[in-house]
Amino acid sequence: MSHIEVRDVSLVYDTPAGRVTGVQDANFNMEESEFLCLVGPSGCGKSTLLNIIAGFLAPTGGEIRIGGKVVTGHGMDRGVVFQDFAQLFPWRTALGNVEFGLEMKGIGKAEREEIALEQLKLVKLEKFVRSYPHHLSGGMQQRVAIARALAYNPAVLLMDEPFAALDALTRDDMQRLLADVWRETRKTVIYVTHNVAEAVYLADRVVVMTPHPGTVKIEVPVSLARPRDPLSVDFLDYQKQLLRQLGQETPQA
After folding, report:
1. Closest by Cα among 113, 91, 92, 93 to 103
2. Which strand (E) or helix (H) includes residue 237?
3. pLDDT at residue 223 above 60?
4. Is this prediction's pTM over 0.85?
5. CA triplet 99, 35, 8: central angle to 5 degrees?
6. 3-class DSSP state for residue 99?
7. Is the dihedral of CA 90, 95, 96, 99 positive or negative?
8. What angle separates helix 138-151 from helix 168-185, to the nearest 10 degrees?
9. Quick one: how far is CA 167 from the chain centroid?
């Protein structure tokens, strides 16, 4: 049995203009500790599908299973990182933000501080534990968000274009950091991105979604040794393969 099973998942919205299909009959499975990227054109439903897996949206058809159990809502077995920097609590320090999920689990102060400090060290922010979000750069805020999602030890990490709002150099640094964090924690990760180069850099497997209504078009395993060289011929070949599936031609920087 796969760790995550996405079975014939569909979602239909009611709008003033009528019913709109956001996701249609999406299917894929994931193994434990696998890093999977969802890519596709804007509006193809990849973020919607991630929100269904997170339990924030209920599918109108099909089901999600994690560890054999049907997802019926959000649970502590899934950590979520969004693109928006506002996901952090501005009145809490980096340490306080990372401790939040542990508080919700009822973990005592001394233990949750120890765990939070360990996670902040993992994302290389041990010198900024007492800093508030407005004192931190965008990349540092996203590192806090990753640490917070990891702190209560979820089985699955769900990430919705977390680096899309960052400048190119910071995004590259964050991709390398995330690859290191994943290598150390071996979490099961589903990562939504519109950036093909990012998907090739991070993923064990890339799921390409079709334009609206979104469904799974093809799955592409990425058989490259880690750490990956974005300038290698094999890396660029994977980019070209994915871009062809997306109806594009030019590799992304």
Report:
1. 113
2. helix 233-245
3. yes
4. yes
5. 105
6. helix
7. positive
8. 20
9. 18
